[in-house]
Amino acid sequence: MNSRDLAVGIFFMSQTALGMLGNSALLCCFIIADFVGIKAKPTDLIVKHLTWANFIVLFKGIPESIAAFSQTYYVDYVSCKLVLYFHRVGRGVSLVSTSLLSVFQAIIISPSNSKWAQLKIRALDIIGPSLGLCWALQMLVYAFILVYATDIRGGGNVTGIKMFEYCAVVKPRRPINTLTLILLTSNDVMFLGLMMWASGYMVFILLKHKQRVKHIHRSQSLRSSPETRATQRILTIVSSFVLFYVMSIVFTAYLSVLEGTSKWVSNAGATVAACFPAFCPFLLLRHYSSISRLCCPSS
Fold first, then answer.
1. pLDDT tens, residue by residue, 71-117
2. Which of 63, 74, 120, 253 is deepest in the core (most CB within 10 A)?
3. What's the N-to-C CA distance of the chain in angstroms?
4. What is the DSSP code string of 8-29?
5. Residue 122: is it exposed, middle or buried by C-beta count within 10 angstroms (0-12/13-18/19+)?
6. 159-200: per-residue pLDDT in tens?
């Protein structure tokens, strides 16, 4: 084992352990909050689904770490299909859940005289069905992975196959490959755009509200006002999400059109895809109001 493989293995293992720890802590906070009787927010259900999706995405880091430490480690035929499939489904659900969280928060904080006000009550009733549709849609979009994913031994005699660390993927014909690339990219871009629009709308509402109550904060700096802090939190979460997922889209698209397999590109894509699921729970633990009330009742 060379030093590069050792460094990659340690990084994958650390990233996976950190993400698992953070998401476990977030789930434990929700369980304790339910146990002590803290009233749940309507968007808590979305955050719970987001956390489970993060777990699924991070699970791929386990075989990635083992493959980096052991060059002879391979996943069997069925496990290879399931690992790759549920990783992509979890990544898609994480993206869509964050988009839904932004949209529902935008609806909730919208002024009572806006056209979105009438959706506030109805929005609470469709959170559950929207999450169910989210899982079903992502499982359908990535169903092709179950067809083209195979193990290393099974793909040894197949032409047009891409060998990765512990699995292999049969490359489809060019028209199917192009159509799949367009479908996946459109899925990511659509929900990223929806999330950015909803977050931009929230920032706009908060800034307008800050202007209206500016006289209340004359004794405080604008930096310390509640509206400014809320705006900064939204921008932090959204910008980090967009940064990691745009990079993930780029690596995924490049791997799809690349002839052969690049170990560096494959490792970089896996690392970037797991960045937000690993750091997301720590952002939520710090800024999510339900968790803040649990950790600090006086808040």
1. 666 777 888 888 889 998 998 999 898 888 888 888 877 777 767 66
2. 63
3. 51
4. HHHHHHHHHHHHHHHHHHHHHH
5. exposed
6. 667 666 677 777 777 777 778 778 877 888 888 888 888 888
% of the chain at pLDDT higher than 70:
77
User: What structural domains does the chain harbor?
Assistant: 3-295 (1.20.1070.10)
Q: Identify whether the C-beta of residue 30 lies closer than 8 Å to the C-beta of residue 44.
A: yes
DSSP 151: -
Angle subtended by helix axes 174-212 and 77-109, to nearest 10: 30
Distance CA 72, CA 16 (A): 21
* 157 burial type by CB count under 10 A (0-12 exposed, 13-18 middle, 19+ buried): exposed
Handedness of CA 164, 167, 173, 179 (dihedral sign): negative
Euclidean distance between CA atoms 107 and 290, whole angstroms: 18
Higher pLDDT, 231 or 91: 91
Which 3 state secondary structure label does DSSP give 62? helix
Identity of the amino acid at 268 = A
**Which residues are registered as beta bridge partners of 32?**
none
- Rounded Cα gap, residues 8 and 265, in angstroms: 13
- CB neighbour list of residue 289: distance below 8 Å, 6 or more residues apart: 41, 299
For residues 246 and 204, the answer to whether their CB atoms sit within 8 Å is no
Q: Which amino acid is at 260?
A: G
Tokens of 272: 């970037």
**Token code pair at residue 135:** 């899982």
CA 68/CA 111 separation, integer angstroms? 52
